[in-house]
Amino acid sequence: GSPMKAQFVLPIPSACRAILQGRGTNVMRKGLYSPLLIFLVTVIIPGMVWGAEVHGIISVEDYFSKDSSSAYDFNILTTRTRLDATKLNTAGTLGFHFDGRERNVLASKDYNSSIKSERIDTLNLEYAGLSKGVYLSVGRQLPRELSLERVDGLNLVYSNKTTGGGVFGGLKPDPYTDEFGSDYSTAGAYLFHRTNDLYANLALVYNGYKGETDRQYISGSSYYYPSKEINLYGSFMGDINQDSGNTELSNALLEASYRPGKGSISVGYTEFQSIRYYKSMSVDYSYARSGQHSYYLRGDYRFGDRYTLYGRLDRQTQISSGLVLEEKIRDVYHVGFRNDNLLNSNISMDISDEMASGYGYSYNNYRLDMRRLFGETFELGLNGSLQQSKYDYYADAETVITYGASGDMRLGKRWHVSLSYEGMQASAYSTNTAISRVTYRF
User: Fold this and answer.
1) How many CB atoms neighbour CB 10 within 10 A?
2) Which long-range contacts (CB under 8 A, 24 or more apart) does 225-230 make?
3) Residue whose C-alpha is closest to residue 220's, from 191, 241, 248, 255
4) What's the rounded Cα separation, in Å, for the pair 373 and 347?
5) How many CA atoms lie less than 13 Å away from 47 in the CB half-sphere?
6) Are β-strands 397-411 and 378-391 bridged in parallel, bridged antiparallel, or unpaired?
7) CA-to-CA separations, 392 to 60, 328, 389, in angstroms, rounded
8) Where is pLDDT greater, at 395 or 247?
9) Which of 127, 126, 121 is nearest to 98 (CA)?
10) 23: alpha, beta or left? (left if phi > 0; alpha if psi -120 to 50)
11) Nearest 10 degrees: CA dihedral of 239, 241, 245, 247?
12) Which candidate, 111, 291, 300, 313, has a CA 20 to 30 Å from the CA of 261?
């Protein structure tokens, strides 16, 4: 029942669908699960004899969507299972991680016929017995110290109490199908430092495609807490232009926050540029560098023991570099009010309004959220919004109404059930979406 770090897939959707259709099923008919079952039987289960720790989560989610503008509905059942197994040997230095999912289309059509039903996000072994402060992980992974690249390969890390570094490399899952292949590759090196008031990392990453350079970039981020009231954060990513050799800023975020007493105020800057892959996208895609940057100011103030007033102001600039360089500016205002105990009813209420103008249109969005916790096991939520939009080239205003409800119930320490519904009504279309999920922790 403790938090998990990894997942593995069980073919529950296939079995459920077969039962609903009144026929049997062979859950081992897909080759994906045979190697996993062999590994579980020969490595993990025997490892549990000498004190292995195995934690995880299994969830089954049903997604149903009905759109009046679509020729068919969507009904997709997804099984996700996460597994984190540690101390698989007597020395306690071997671990196994698996993260995967399986989707089954229960009615109508899928979003895309090329989407695979099974996906493996993580499948690796981790070994910490090489030397003090050194560990090696082998397999499909997102290096935990550098969550930038997925790799089918290895990640070797050294760290002491505050400082460390690592290298990773191997093939890269197909970005469109998640399948294993040899066309894509990745490699990189990184450094990190962490203390109670400072965290920083820096990485150099190489992406390849069919033996040629697809992308190269440098990335870094840092948190700094000079005092209890002040928080500083920054991150950046710079791509190396493969034609000129220059480094161009791709993404950046800078924020400074001050939290005195019952309030807080933050000021920040964001920069987002489109990313270019020089080989894998050069044939099928034409590239035009575009992006957006914004300055923002946000803050909140709590008065009394239950009231909070908050707001945010954004000045956004969109830059398009097609045949003619074009720059558009938009201002976004957001203001809201929260009450944590409305009329002593244990109902929390959040009412807000967001206004924006620019980019060729303007809108005003009013939203209301209400939630109530019954005991410590069930939470009920209701929400609704009204948005009115007006386009510069269209005389009439467009009105969109949304409404929804959600419920979350905990059944003991291991089971959790959630249900949610959202409806949307516009002048020319309507949508209805329902999501149900059952989760079991072990």
Assistant:
1) 19
2) 225/196, 225/197, 225/198, 226/197, 229/258, 229/259, 229/260, 230/256, 230/257, 230/258, 230/259
3) 191
4) 8
5) 21
6) antiparallel
7) 45, 13, 10
8) 247
9) 121
10) beta
11) -30
12) 313
Counting every residue written for the chain, the total comes to 442
Q: Which two tokens stand for residue 240?
A: 């190396």
The backbone torsions φ and ψ at residue 126, rounded to the nearest 5 degrees and listed phi first, read -125, 130
Look up residue 16 and give its two tokens: 């459920």
Residues in contact with 67: Cβ distance below 8 Å, sequence separation at least 6, in sequence order: 73, 429, 430, 431
CB 255 within 8 Å of CB 268: yes
Collapse the DSSP code of 333 into the 3-class scheme (helix H, G, I; strand E, B; otherwise coil) and give the result. strand
End-to-end Cα, the chain, rounded Å: 5
The predicted-structure confidence for 229-257, as pLDDT tens digits, reads as follows 999 999 999 999 998 989 999 999 999 99
pTM over 0.90: no
How far is residue 269's CA from residue 316's CA, in Å, rounded to a whole number?
Answer: 10
Q: For residue 238, give the nearest of 220, 222, 250 by alpha carbon.
A: 250
